[in-house]
Write a structure and sequence with these properties.
This protein has twelve helices and 50 strands. The protein is globular and about 100 Å long. By secondary structure, it is mainly beta.
Length: 812
């Protein structure tokens, strides 16, 4: 997950929301041409995967099937409360275990009769994670580790109770001997009905005292029938994506708010009741029952490549000095040995002892998470040298572009608006082919997304067409976050939402499902001839001035339209220049900004203006850069600006800012802004044409790019010969697409289409209607090497065309 200190500019707003584009209701026809004669790059075999982070109770209280919260009492008495009957009084007290290094405790439960003279019973109750969900007929396997210092008066009763307290199932342990040692008790339950808020009680007859060391309750039907397993429905939804890899266990979870709270893999293996918990920076403690071994086993069960993210000595608030980094490097080396080492090695032997003698063949390690700042480059070099020396086959993923060592991949993260992803798709098309290959480890539309709507899925799917088109450099990608328990959603939106009983996929989940299950093996070059779309919603807006790590002043601000003066700083009418960020003084016809922070703006003017000239004078007072001249300002997250003396005061460019995220639109012009000198600046906008003048000299004359509204990628599947055309229609109208297939040979007349659409881009799924927005398969008839297909409004379409196209090897 992104954090504000690194990715504030990704606080995106999907003001665009597609359907608000003022698009004509008349359908237009596009021409899509597939060139199978000149196949492009092979699709990366790891293209589509998943990223799991312990956030939103994704693991504990979610994917990890354990029903009992705080089962080893590592988090005090959280989730445990006294339970009494017939006037009993219960006292709870935490006691240390015999292992001073362990975070676990005994929970001493002392049951007294109180004022009752009769049959008083008491003990403790655990409500699990917002209730223990039980389906009718579901069976559970339970375990209790208890110590009895004296014999109980009556039996020890373990009961599964409905939300109203009635008993669903129970087991009575009788004739338990008093002992100073732990006793392990096991039992089976079968629930006679469905209940979302059941709870577990452990009680006995007063007077009595018993010490609980560990309490566990698992459904017997876990994913792949593992004893310490995963919740079957959630794990199956992930398996249905057919992920090529799983990146785990985070995310910020790996780093921790402070280093003491980072994920430590060694503490996440071995006996469950002795595992070291992690105080998750997302606001809860997890017991690491879903630990390093279980993550590796999960990947193995799905035939997915594991990608283990390691801590590189950096947390949100603390960094380990470079000269103290060796223990972190050793931890990484030991983790690789645990996964891959022979059973004769120290950690390979531990893996075998833990029940998995065969190696996992771990191939990928990511060094840190979103840590690409400060001395990260030097840290990466230290991990690189140590890991490559011992395990040269391990591929290392960097958090940012590094210079010290040749990273195998670099991990980019994007959280932004739908429009940002449309623009970013073009940026992927222009990614340098000799640069470090990319893993897009986290991406999602996060604004204008509701709780996961079709609009978000459309933006992500459009972006994925570019990911596949550019699979020679974009090797892997994964949506984020994967899971959210609806009772603890600290991040929105997410792919899969669930409660104690049910789960559903958001449209974003289904977009991933559609792409991952219809990949293909090689990209077929595809061109789209699309009628120019109106940029009306983008080619208008107000004006503004801004600074970046610079103090400056601006004067003689004026907006004209021909000979007509629309606005001046002294006579702004209803649209005065208004500071948004920074320390501004606006007086006597001058706007002065004195803070040295970044992205400090003041904006004004009518957001409906078109075809105007914005002129002003500017002077740098101090700092690192120059000026930012804003135009077509639509709101606080969406505008264009002419960046004069940007990038460390080295050059100029024009940038489009959508949802706070910027894209460069022009070529770099070398420039250096002098402190204390006045500069004359002028921006002329007419339609989508923008001209920028510096000291009356034309510096830029560009046209703002049209907004593409159909995202396309075509691949070919070697096994079947199928040509797979993925189309994403961003318009709120049907689109006739005339498809030309060149070089595909004979085409079968019948094919199929997976289509996901809805009557509104704001449509969402829910527990009440989990299939409101899901892909539906349709037959496609009368296919030939030239045919027309109609894409529904706001739709993701995947066409499968059956051909006799030769394989890539045969063609080449």
């Amino acid at each position: 997950m992104q954090r504000s200190r690194l990715y504030a500019y990704f606080a995106a707003l999907c003001l665009w929301n597609i359907g608000l584009l003022n698009i004509s209701a008349k359908a237009d026809t596009l021409t899509l041409t597939v060139d199978a004669n000149h196949p492009g790059p092979a699709l990366s075999p790891l293209q589509h995967g998943v990223f799991f982070e312990e956030i939103n109770h994704a693991g504990d209280g979610g994917l990890y099937a354990e029903k009992i919260q705080n089962r080893a009492f590592t988090n005090g008495i959280v989730a445990w409360t006294p339970w009494t009957k017939n006037g009993a009084v219960v006292h709870l007290n935490l006691l240390p275990t015999s292992n001073p290094q362990s975070a676990a405790h005994y929970l001493e439960v002392r049951v007294e009769r109180g004022a009752a003279n009769g049959d008083a019973w008491g003990g403790v109750a655990n409500t699990g994670y917002w209730g223990i969900g039980t389906h009718k007929g579901e069976t559970f396997r339970g375990q209790i580790v208890v110590k009895l210092s004296s014999k109980l008066v009556g039996p020890l009763v373990v009961a599964l109770r409905a939300a109203d307290g009635t008993v669903l199932a129970e087991h009575r342990f009788t004739k338990l001997a008093a002992s100073g040692n732990d006793q392990t008790l096991e039992y089976l339950f079968r629930s006679p009905k469905e209940d979302a808020h059941a709870f577990l009680t452990i009680t006995t007859q007063a007077p009595a005292t018993f010490d609980l060391r560990f309490v566990s309750l698992f459904p017997t039907d876990t994913f792949d029938h593992q004893t310490n397993g995963l919740r079957a429905d959630l794990a199956q939804m992930v398996a249905d994506l057919k992920p090529s890899f799983v990146r785990f266990p985070g995310g910020c979870f790996v780093e921790g708010d402070i280093l003491a709270h980072r994920f430590r893999w060694r503490g996440s293996i071995g006996p469950l009741m002795d595992r070291t918990p992690t105080d998750d920076l997302w606001g809860y403690q997890c017991d690491n029952g879903l630990g390093y071994l279980e993550y590796l086993e999960w990947c193995e069960e799905m035939h997915a490549e594991p990608i283990f993210v390691i801590n590189c000595g950096m947390s949100h608030k603390q960094n380990v000095p470079l000269d103290q980094l060796q223990p972190y490097i050793q931890s990484a080396l030991d983790a690789i040995e645990y996964a891959n080492g022979p059973v004769t090695s120290k950690w390979g032997a531990q893996r075998a002892k833990d029940g998995h003698p065969a190696p996992f063949h771990l191939q990928y390690i990511e060094v840190g998470n979103e840590d690409g700042f400060d001395d990260y480059d030097a840290r990466f070099a230290m991990f690189y040298d140590a890991i490559k020396a011992r395990y040269p086959y391990i591929k290392l993923i960097a958090d940012t572009r590094v210079n010290s060592r040749p990273a195998d991949l670099v991990d980019d993260h994007y959280y932004a608006s739908t429009l940002f992803f449309v623009r970013q798709a073009a940026a992927l098309d222009n990614y340098p082919r000799n640069a470090t290959p990319v893993y897009i480890g986290e991406f999602a539309v996060t604004r204008g997304a509701g709780h996961g709507n079709l609009n978000a899925a459309l933006g992500e799917a459009y972006f994925m067409t570019a990911i596949e088109r550019n699979s020679d450099v974009i090797k892997m990608a994964s949506y984020a976050p994967l899971f959210a328990n609806v009772n603890n959603m600290v991040w929105n939106p997410d792919a899969i939402l669930f409660d104690s009983l049910h789960a559903y996929g958001t449209p974003s989940y289904w977009a991933q499902w559609m792409f991952s299950r219809n990949r293909g093996d090689v990209v077929l070059p595809t061109t789209v001839e699309e009628p120019p779309s109106s940029n009306e919603a983008l080619d208008r807006g107000g004006i503004g001035v801004a600074t970046w790590a610079t103090s400056a002043e601006f004067t003689d601000l004026k907006v004209t339209q021909g000979d007509k003066v629309l606005w001046t700083l002294n006579s702004p009418g209803a649209f005065p220049l208004t500071p948004q960020t920074g320390q501004w003084t606006i007086a006597d016809g001058t706007a002065r900004q004195t803070d040295l922070g970044t992205n400090l703006r003041a904006v004004g003017g009518d957001p409906s203006w078109t075809d105007y000239t914005f002129s002003l004078r500017a002077r740098k007072l101090g700092g690192k850069e120059g000026f930012l001249i804003m135009f077509h300002v639509r709101d606080q997250d969406n505008w264009y600006w002419w960046n004069v003396g940007g990038w460390g005061n080295t050059h100029d460019n024009i940038e489009e800012i959508v949802g706070g995220a910027s894209t460069e639109l022009a070529y770099n012009v070398p420039n250096h802004i002098e402190t204390g000198r006045w500069y004359d600046l002028r921006v002329q906008v007419q339609g989508n044409r923008v001209r920028c003048y510096l000291d009356n000299k034309l510096e830029y004359d560009i046209r703002l790019p049209n907004l593409p509204t159909l995202g396309v990628v075509t691949t070919r599947e070697d096994k079947t010969g199928d040509v797979i055309i993925k189309m994403v229609n961003l318009k709120g109208e049907s689109r006739d697409v005339h498809i030309r297939l060149n070089g595909v040979g004979q085409v079968a007349p019948d094919g199929s289409a997976w289509v996901m659409t809805a009557s509104s881009p704001n449509a969402e799924n829910s527990f009440v209607n989990p299939h409101a927005v899901v892909p539906i398969e349709h037959p496609v008839r009368n296919i030939s090497d030239q045919f027309t297909y109609t894409c529904p409004p706001w739709s993701i379409v995947i066409l499968r065309l059956h051909t006799h196209l030769p394989t890539t090897a045969e063609q080449r």
